[in-house]
Amino acid sequence: MASHTGELSTHGPAVRVQDLHRSFNEAGGVLNGLDLEIAPGEFVALLGRSGSGKSTLLRSLAGLDRGVAGTGRVEVPEKVSVVFQDSRLLPWKRVLDNVTFGLRSSDASERGLQALDEVGLAGREKAWPHELSGGEQQRAALARSLVRDPELLLADEPFGALDALTRIRMHTLLRKLCEVHRPAVLLVTHDVDEAIVLADRVIVLDGGVVRHDARIELGTRRSQADPAFARLRAELLAELGVEDDHDAAPRPAVGRLSERAAS
Ligand SMILES: Nc1ncnc2c1ncn2[C@@H]1O[C@H](COP(=O)(O)OP(=O)(O)OP(=O)(O)O)[C@@H](O)[C@H]1O
After folding, report:
1. Residue 88 covered by a domain
2. What ipTM describes this predicted complex?
3. What is the pTM of this model?
4. Residue-number span of the structural domain to which 224 is assigned
5. What is the distance between the alpha carbons of residues 84 and 137, in angstroms, rounded to a whole number?
6. How far is the CA of 94 from the centre of ligand 1 (A)?
7. Domain assignment present for 110
8. Which atom of ligand 1 lies at the shortest distance from residue 156's CA?
């Protein structure tokens, strides 16, 4: 079995994956000798075709793949938080109790309220999860993650179920939170524009390994109108084996870093 340790210190990379193999059956491997390093504070977006193993990699980093066959080495920091497409709030606990669930410190409530304030949910601490909109539930899930002050934030399509406008707001919020808390981030997404808007670096999985690994050199004000943005989109779509039909059928705008700067 692959080792999964919390040995990495703040001096080395936040994540180190070496020669990781994972398979669910004898038909073939999902991860086939994958290597990856993520630096502290680095925001990495993970793209790949459906079934390419993105969630499998994320679950390996989260330690959620016990019992899955495989070999290799996975090293992550002590404090890891995970956000999924659905908020996974406990329906029988109020919002603040969800955020602080499992925290043992005497100032847990105070920290929970502070986290709720940071994600724009001040005053909603006594609400039940079902009283929140989908976007608000994801905000609460982010607060629950960040209150633990993670060195690594793993996010598996956290905005996949949200409408386009809410996604823009969540992009702005996530970038702002990451600038403050500086966790390393691995964000699984199907959305190339989301990857370009949010990440410092984009990697593409294919055949169970990292096929493409590129830094985003667009600066902080990223606009879909920027020709460099369009070039990068075309490059990534080509890596994914998809034609860029952006000009033929304009997509709804996704969040821009100019918006995050303004917030
Ligand atoms: N628990 C499981 N049991 C059997 N096969 C699995 C299991 N989890 C994933 N797989 C298979 O492993 C492969 C990779 O799945 P994974 O969910 O990692 O892909 P993905 O890139 O995240 O896909 P998507 O973009 O569609 O969410 C798929 O072929 C999937 O069917």
Report:
1. no
2. 0.97
3. 0.88
4. 3-79+150-262
5. 11
6. 33
7. no
8. 22
